[in-house]
Amino acid sequence: METYFPHHGKNPPPRPAPRQNFPHCGKNFSTPWKNGAIAAAALLTTLTTLTHPAAAQLGPWPIRTKQATFEASIHRREKDILWIERKTSDGTRAPQVGLAIADIVEIRMPTPALFTNVEKILTMTNPPTPLISKGQAALDKFILQTKSLRDIPGIPANEAILLKAQLLDLQSRWRESIRLYDDILTRAPNTPPATNAQIRAGIAYAKNGEPLEAVEYLGGILLPEDDEKLLSELLFALGDSYFALGNYDNALLSYLPLVVFYPYSHNNEPRGLTAAMNCYAELKEWEPLYRTIQEIQTAYPNTPAAKAADEILEKFKTELTEAGQFVDAAKITSE
Predict the structure, then answer these.
(1) 96 partner at 20 to 30 Å CA-CA among 23, 70, 142, 169?
(2) Residues 89, 101: Cα–Cα separation, whole Å
(3) Closest by CA position to 211, among listed 240, 233, 231, 182
(4) Cα–Cα distance between 47 and 229 in angstroms, integer?
(5) Could you tell me if 105 and 95 are in contact, meaning their C-beta atoms sit under 8 angstroms apart?
(6) Cα(319)–Cα(313) distance, integer angstroms
(7) 315 pLDDT exceeds 70?
(8) Mean pLDDT of all residues belonging to the chain
């Protein structure tokens, strides 16, 4: 049967063979939980070793100024002066010197291994609480050491704050994570971390049941095309917020791109079709609702989406029967 995608001039990508609700088909059922536990334990050990007391100095790292590039360790910051200790050729200690912050072009701090390990936690399904706590503790140490340097290019303090906020999101601690996202937006505007923080703050507002704030943060923002997971979360959060506000047309415009352009990422198609179906029901658009129900029942039998379709079908049985007669008659005539 044909697929109905109103408001879009593009055809959807080719559909594969009908899918069944067996997400682990072809995988080993006997040991995934063991492998996950082993990975979590190994990561917990790694994070424990990274949670060390704050060092008296940072570096040495390459520091590029308007005049030269050299390696030096960072000792402290006093307002607009950064006190450093340059690395000498014979390894002896050089006296500390003050470097004007305005003269610093970049400090080339390498990406901490801590970031990679925290990102592994963020990709886990239901990571254990002790692992999240260790990740937060390690990030707190790093943030303590680098926060005073966050305005210097090359120091990833804002990135560390962003990661900590995402760990809070894993625990549904929305107000705390929003506070950190807003801190990045205030202190580092017009930077990649700030753009990411705005998206994630909007998603957090949506999940915390604050649709007006979510729309304020997410409405009109540039979609993160290079991160389909974040893009999917953004569009669902925006659609859900519009739906909660009774703006069903704009909710549809958020859900349908997920079905048309990103159907096979993060279970977007059945989730998007279900959400669109609810919008059509509220708008009393019976023909697209009928077609969407058919699509769900054909492609996703015995799933939560199919159950939701059955419930809508039962609720609006008379209206959908009449719409179905029109749709099916038009199909027969065209054939």
Answers:
(1) 142
(2) 25
(3) 240
(4) 25
(5) no
(6) 9
(7) yes
(8) 85
